[in-house]
Amino acid sequence: MKLFDRFFERSARSVAQRSSRRGLLKNLGVALVGGASIPLLPVARASQGAPQKPVEEGDPSSCEYWRYCAVDGFLCQCCGGTYNSCPPGTEMSTITWIGTCRNPVDGRSYVISYNDCCGVNQCGTCLCQRDERDRPIYRSDKSNDINWCLGSTSYVYNCSTAIVVGLAFEE
Amino acid sequence: MHRNLSARLLSLITLFFIGVGVVNSSLAGDNAMPPPLPIEEIGRVESLPASYPEDWVLVDESSFMNMYGGKVIILDIAETSHPKRMKGMMSKSMLGNFTQSSARGEFYIIESFHERGARGKKFDVLVIYDKQTLKVIKEIEWPTDRLQSLPERYSMALSEDQSLLYVSNFNPAASFTVFDLDSREIVETIGTPGCVLTYPTGERSVTSICSNGGLLTTVLDKKGNLKARERMAPFFDTDSSPIFEWPVIVNGRAHFPSFHGEMHVIDFSGDVARYIEKWSLVSEKERQGNWRPGGIALTDRDDRGRLYIIMQPDGKEGTQTHGGSQVWVFDLKTKQRLRIIDIPNWAVSLAVTRGSNPKLVITNGSMNLDIFSANDGQFIQTVSDFNNITPLLIHKSY
Questions:
Q1: Which of A41, A119, B88, B397 meets the CB 3.0–4.6 Å disulfide criterion with B52?
Q2: DSSP for B207-249, written as a single string
Q3: How far lies B18's CA from each of B4, B13, B40, in Å?
Q4: Closest partner residue to A120 among B118, B147, B172, by Cβ?
Q5: Which whole number is the average pLDDT over B205-219?
Q6: What is the CATH number of the domain that holds A128?
């Protein structure tokens, strides 16, 4: 049982109806290889010899996707953006909170920046709350309860991204 | 001129009596016909009592799916007739914050607007409402960025004598603004580096909770200006043993539950916050079952000072805000658990109403309100269909 059960169920069902894991993996592969603006994951730089490509898998429109371990909000992947880009007509927040999520494929922990996309209105679908290592607002750097559109032209929250910004220190 | 008026008046009176005659003759032919409805006044608006009944609550509806549509909804949660439950509402735009004065008959909402919907200059406005008419008494444009987050019980607070209002700011530098409720003027905005929220302390102090696991008390002078700052050494680790920012305050003692089930007790009765002790909400066996506190607004108290807290089994990192399946009731003096109330539809937030027969109000997993008798845990009814989207914080009424 989770918070916003009703929303979760609704989101999960609609995502399941729309997407196939294989199709998403294929699209994700294209995005990672072909997207010049998307930084290569650190695993690619660290590896020697084959395989050269960084690896991750999963459905970025699913709340279970590995990068969303500390997220609380609408997934931009369902809102006209992607897991690391904002929908048209919005702007990405310049300040935000971070989480540390483990990529199940390479076993590494990554620092994830959950930049909000701001403007227009609330996206209103694919609500996802995971909250791993999320902290109350006294740890603002780790808190997803704050409206992080506070540094943007528009303070109106639209959706949340999950951007890899580095490898985490090993615990 | 006079002659014309008299003639018109005479003709009007004649017409009236002819009309009455027609109506009377038609009625005379049908004895079952009731008398006509009286003429009604246009422009009537209801008002509310100066003292709200104990079973009324104020629902802080953050409206997460449409934040322009946030509101505070006044509900009688004991009323069994749906059309009679809602008593009124106030708007609360873009995750606005709410608090109230039990002595002044006023509500306070700080909210935000852009000039043109989601575009244009952003304004933060403090709005003072009359609790009987729900009309705006005064609006004050805010000089800085107020805290915008999911609802917090202590994002605003009043001084002990209810003459000063403390309002949390965050941009992301943290501060609070002191507002004089008598003069209706801002006194001062005071920085609280690394510390947020406004827990009222003593007569004229404000305690905030800090990113290093300690507390900062800001001591004010009589007028509400900064007098001194005192920092309390860290008493928890924000990574490994974090606390919820939702204490219950009884007789000046604030009880802060931790993620793992410890209760930290802080004395807020003096000028400066002082650490007293910690004790455990869970037994060793319950700890092994990972029984933990969990939820959004997960704590409240009744008039007798008993603690109500949402608990979850199999808790782990990441489930701390997801709610739970039970409410545990504690006597804070003896630190003994008095009762376990099973919550059939899950509990995300809770509140307890005033009086000797308090009601336990639960925001359930479907974002409706489940109402229980707080004294014996008996389920009373589910309250739904009141324009509820995400009613994550419920306030008592006064």
A1: B397
A2: EEEETTS-EEEEEE-TTS-EEEEEEEPP-S-TTTS-B-S--EE
A3: 21, 9, 23
A4: B118
A5: 98
A6: 2.60.30.10
Distances (CA, A) of B331 to A6, B177, B267, B281, B290: 34, 35, 17, 11, 22
- pLDDT at residue B21 in the model: 45
State yes or no: pLDDT of B56 exceeds 80: yes
* pLDDT of res. A48: 53
For testing contact with chain A, the best of B322, B364, B384 (most A CBs within 10 A): B322
**Residue B172 to residue A136, Cβ atoms within 8 A:** no
CB B139 within 8 A of CB B123: no
Express each pLDDT in B250-296 by its tens digit.
Answer: 999 999 999 999 999 999 999 999 999 999 999 999 999 999 999 99
Partners of A121 on chain B (C-beta within 8 Å) are: 66, 68, 118
pLDDT(A15) > 50: no
> Touching check for A124 and chain B: CB below 8 Å?
yes
* Contact yes or no for A133 and B150 at CB 8 A: no
Q: Which residues of A touch B210 (CB under 8 A)?
A: 138
Q: Tell me what pLDDT residue B30 has.
A: 57
Tally of domains within chain A: 1
Confidence of residue A53 (pLDDT cuts 50, 70, 90): confident
Q: Position of tokens 């505070």?
A: B72
Reported as type and span, the H/E element at residue B23 is helix B2-28
pTM of the model: 0.86
CB contact (8 A) between residue B152 and residue A137: yes
Q: Do B148 and A132 touch (CB under 8 A)?
A: no
Closest CA of chain A from B158, distance in Å: 20
What string of DSSP letters covers chain A?
--TTHHHHHHHHHHHHHH--HHHHHHHHHHHHHH-TTSPPPHHHHH--SS--S----S-TTSTTSGGGTT-EEEBGGGTTSBTTBPPTT-EE-SS--EEEEE-TTT--EEEEE-PEEESSS---SSEEE--TT---TTSGGG-SSB-GGGGSS---EEEE--EEEEEPPP-
Q: What is the pLDDT of residues B291-349, one digit of tens each?
A: 999 999 999 999 999 999 999 999 999 999 999 999 999 999 999 999 999 999 999 99
Active site residues of A: 97, 116
* C-alpha of A47 from chain center: 24
**Banded pLDDT at A54 (limits 50, 70, 90):** confident
The conformation of residue B37, written as its DSSP 8-state character, comes to P
- Its ipTM equals 0.89
Which 3 state secondary structure label does DSSP give B280?
strand
A143 neighbourhood in chain B, CB within 8 Å: 149
Task: Supply the pLDDT for residue A29.
Answer: 30
Enumerate the residues of chain A whose CB falls inside 8 A of the CB of residue B238: 135, 138-139
Subunit contact A133:B318, Cβ cutoff 8 A = yes
- What is the domain extent for residue A39? 5-167
